[in-house]
Amino acid sequence: MCVSTYAVLGFAQMFIDDVIPLWSLASKVVGGLNFGSQDSGTLLAMCGILMLLASIFLYPVVARYLSPSSTMIVCSLMSGILVILQPIIVRDAETFSGVLIQENTIWVWTALILMNGTRQCAIMMAFNANFLLTNNSVTKSVRGRGNGISMGASSFARIFAPAAGAYAFAWSVEEKDGTPVRHWPFNYHFVFNIDGLFFCLVAALVFFCMPKRANSPNQNSP
To answer: What are the tens digits of pLDDT across the range 75-104?
Structure first.
């Protein structure tokens, strides 16, 4: 089960990490943000800073009060919700806000940084929790093999994620004569909704299928 959740989580992360830059660079006609490459780089840098701070200060607190399986459930659900809500909040915010920063509203930048930064922090904690569950599920003699299988499954899933994300996004924002061809839920929301469901699938797999004993080290370790 740890192998399955690691693979699905890896796919979902790579999928959205590929879609976000494409969405930010897409024109506003098709639901994008019309960012430049510098704006997209700034967004990634700011999110990276938040993830670093969360790794140092937040994750130790979370690990102290939540079990690995609970951490995975909470963080996966949080990631899924944030992914689904992101285009809604950002686009609506851009519609109702009138204050601009370099052709982008303050609210849009604030929402993007907070939502993407929080999502990346949650994914980081989910991966760490899955790593603990994997190690707790096997004996010391096969721990290396277990981690290798998990990493291999995740890497295999990540191979397909960028192509799937790019193709799905291109299909969803197709336009004809300057007008989007598809409407909700198959417009630019489509890829966010699909990826959010993958994160929710991880939470469901952990909640319904992960043995409770995986939260503690394997007592049968030689």
So the answer is: 999 999 999 999 888 776 655 555 444 455
